[in-house]
Amino acid sequence: MPKKPLVSIYLPTRNRSRLLPNAIGSVLQQTWDNLELIVVDDASDDSTPEILQQYSEKSRIKVIRNQDPAGAAASRNLAVGIASGEFVTGIDDDDLFMPERIEMLVRAFTDGISGTCSNDRMVYDQRELIWKKRSLISSSDLLFYNQVGNQLLTRRDYFSGSGGFDESLPSAQDYDLWIRIAQNYGPVKTVPHTLQVVNMKQDETRITLSEDKITGYRACFEKHKQKMSPEQIQYQRYRLALAEGRNPSWNELISSVPASLWFKEIKRKLFF
């Protein structure tokens, strides 16, 4: 790659002053130096504004503040709207990037794909695991479940050409957008390295409320259901049952889950 393209990274935040500096620090430590970080403070009423003031003189960081809470999707769209990068991606305010993440994702980007992602280290209250993803994730794969995760590096014109994040969804806006981007521009390529740490702990206050997650997931399912095969619809309904706190029977697992995903769901039922 003869010239390093600019990468714009969006970071929405609300009342996460304890964790936010770690997320910002992980971006500033990237080996890919041609980047800009756009932080959108979604009307925080803790010490977040004071913390962000410390970064105001750094040329690679732009800070925007919403006077009233607008939500994660609107904040991300706002950031991408002022982004200058050829590529865009995001980071959540409680997650961390490994230093090589942006460099590896950009260098893996080729013609014929819509974006790149990586394996993730998922940190729960009592355990950690590595989420190893498919090497190539098609739009059909995504209609079973969100196999990309919470972040995707894509071209800024692919982002805008797919309509950005749907602000009418209370959650699952990332999943919804990945489906649209993959359908419009091709599959997502996974870099076979663990390049992001994702905080899944339950004791943290989040920009998206837990009750909104189920509502948003269901709304995303209804939005894309007409594109799904009967097998995909069955599996989506099974996952909705899990999200709602129900414990489907073994018979429901066997009848609703594709055989290729039995091991995944059996392991979840036994150990999670």
Structure description:
A hairpin with a 4-residue loop joins β6 and β7. With 272 residues, the protein is of the alpha/beta class. It starts with 6 loop residues before the first strand and ends with a helix. It contains 11 helices and 10 strands. The strands form 2 sheets. A 5-stranded mixed β-sheet has the order 3-2-1-4-9, with helices on both faces. Strands 5, 6, 7, 8 and 10 form a 5-stranded mixed β-sheet that branches. The protein is globular and about 60 Å long. The model has no long low-confidence stretch (mean pLDDT 94). The longest helix has 15 residues. The chain has a single domain, classed as Spore Coat Polysaccharide Biosynthesis Protein SpsA, Chain A.
